Amino acid sequence: MITISSQETTQQTRTQTIMPLLALCLGYFMTILDVTIVNVALVNIKEQLSATVTGLQWIVDGYALVFASLLLTGGALGDRRGNRTIFLVGFALFTLASTLCSLAPTLLVLQIARAVQGLGAALLVPNSLALLNTIYTDARKRAQAIGIWAAVASIGALSGPLLGGLLVNTFGWRSIFLINLPIGILGFLLTARSIAPLPPQGGRSLDLPGQLASMLALGMLTFALIEGNSLGILSPLILAAYAGSALFFLVLLWREKTTSHPMLPLALFGERTFSATNLVALCQTFTFTGFIFIISLFLQQVKHYSPSLTGVALLPSFGCALLATSLSGSLMPRIGAKRMMTIGLLLAAAGCFGFVLVEMQTSYVLLAGIIAVLGFGLALVLPAMTEAAISHAPRTQSGIASGMLNVSRQVGGVIGVAILGTLVGSPQTLLPGMHLAFVIAGGVLVLALGVARVFVSTKREPSQIETAPKSWRTT
Predict the structure, then answer these.
(1) 433 contacts 424 by C-beta, under 8 angstroms
(2) What are the distances in angstroms from CA 101 to CA 146, 159, 217?
(3) Beta-carbon neighbour count of residue 253 at 10 Å?
(4) Were both Cys, which of 68, 264, 412, 474 would link to 285 (CB 3.0–4.6 Å)?
(5) Which CATH number does the domain housing residue 73 bear?
(6) Residue 182: how many other CB atoms lie within 10 Å
């Protein structure tokens, strides 16, 4: 008779718990890593593929545009076809697209491959969280797992510039995409081996007309913002793109209001705190992505830093962001989401306006202080706006509410790079363009501050606050 010791049983249980979490975290890590890692390689890409700043904007925004447009549909597809199945498809797509990025012979091929990466990310992120909720049935273990999963976002964002700078300096820009291959393959195999197939949950229908309308609205707006600089803001094509964007946005609103199975229940926005925090989310990521895009170009083209030194130079921003995220768990219950959001927006706006002082001869000590304040402030806003949004959404729709907050952040990122990146057209005009860009970003944050002060309620759901510190960073 074979007996199994309690130690062996504990080890087996631990393995069954850790392996699925590792697989899910690897998927999330890749999607966040590729948001920041590409920025330190932009100058290298520009030189080797003869790209303009407009071309570089599409490398960043192609990824974010598809990610934002398909995020809600990726979650709905997982509900209908099985979260594990769609998560595996996401891994395969992202890894394949990363390979194509690394081999891209032209700028256009690279831009297309980045868009396919965005599709993979839209399948990975919502389904990784859905799988966490399904696999970890115990509330305490689920909260711990979500906390670890969410912390991966900070690790991915922090390691992106450092890892990217080192890889670009040593192997060239193509290596920043090749790094995804071992991560993607390992994550795919771990998912296939450690996560059992799960039956589809049914749930939300696929609102294809709404999905198409949202993609066209955001895509045309992004095209007009990016290409308007080269084609002329009053050119017929750009004006037609703006008009088309507005038209498809109205079509989206009409569709979501009249269909019995909307992609996005518009009734959610009847709650003013939820609406306000989504606007804050858009403004926060508008500033963050614009900042990363512009500061990477400034450090390499104006200060003449190497890619690896650029990654190191950005450490104060990401380090302070990680510090702010870590402190949020103890700060939130003491001062509340609204006050913490206000403090974060004030600090971030001050950091943006501080960039007006930055010149070519500015010492790194002053520059490091400004980017540290900006990074700390933006990171302080994230958990506060997440808690405020989710606690003011109906419990039965907390998943879609979290998804919508993610969409708002991704849309903000798309628009941020499109608008702010347009102002830094060449190394000769980069410095004045950067000053104007950060004044605009600071103004956007002041707008968000006003919205938060007026429309965000201080009332919170007690039962949700109890578990909030474990899940604030799930978006």
Answers:
(1) yes
(2) 31, 20, 26
(3) 15
(4) 412
(5) 1.20.1250.20
(6) 11
Report the length, in residues, of the chain. 475
Q: Are 296 and 444 in contact (CB under 8 A)?
A: no
Asked, for residue 4, whether it belongs to a domain, the answer is no
287 and 174 in a common domain: no
Other residues' Cβ atoms within 10 Å of the Cβ of residue 174: 18
Report whether 163 contacts 29 (CB < 8 A). no
pTM of the predicted model, to two decimals? 0.84
Q: Is residue 154 packed enough to be buried (19+ CB in 10 Å), middle (13-18) or exposed (0-12)? A: buried
Number of continuous H segments (helices) and E segments (strands) in the chain: 19, 0
275 lies in some domain:
yes
Say if residue 393 is in the same domain as residue 454. yes
CA 77 – CA 94 distance, rounded (Å)? 17
Residue 424, exposed/middle/buried by CB under 10 A (0-12, 13-18, 19+)?
Answer: buried
Q: What confidence tens digit (pLDDT) does each residue in 296-324 have?
A: 999 999 999 999 999 999 989 888 888 88
The residue type of 79 is: D
**Do 82 and 30 touch, CB atoms closer than 8 A?**
no
Secondary structure (H, E, C), 332-358: HHHHCHHHHHHHHHHHHHHHHHHHHHC
Task: Note the pLDDT of residue 468.
Answer: 38
The residues, any chain, with a CB within 8 Å of residue 194's CB and separated by 6 or more, are: 16, 19, 20, 23
Contacts of 179 (CB under 8 A, 6+ apart): 33, 37, 163, 167
- Angle at which helices 107-135 and 398-422 pack, to 10 degrees? 160
Residue 183: domain span: 15-200
Measure the CA–CA gap between 124 and 127, rounded to whole angstroms.
6
Task: Name the 3-class secondary structure at 106.
Answer: coil
pLDDT per position as a tens digit, 142-190: 767 777 777 787 788 778 888 999 999 999 999 999 999 999 999 999 9
CA distance 15 to 4: 16
334 in the same domain as 439? yes
Q: Are residues 462 and 397 both part of a single domain?
A: yes
Alpha helices by DSSP H, listed for 136-207, are 139-171, 175-178, 180-194
Q: Clarify whether residues 162 and 278 are in a common domain.
A: no
Q: Indicate whether 7 pLDDT > 90.
A: no
What tokens appear for 414 in the block? 């798309």
pLDDT > 70: what percent of the chain? 89
Do residues 351 and 444 share a domain?
A: yes
Query: What are the angstrom distances between the C-alpha of 340 and each of 333, 336, 453?
Result: 10, 6, 11
Confidence of residue 331 (pLDDT cuts 50, 70, 90): confident
Please give the Cα distance from 220 to 398 (Å, whole number).
Answer: 30
Domain identity same for 48 and 177: yes
Give 40's DSSP letter. Answer: G
Last residue of a domain, one of 177, 200, 223: 200
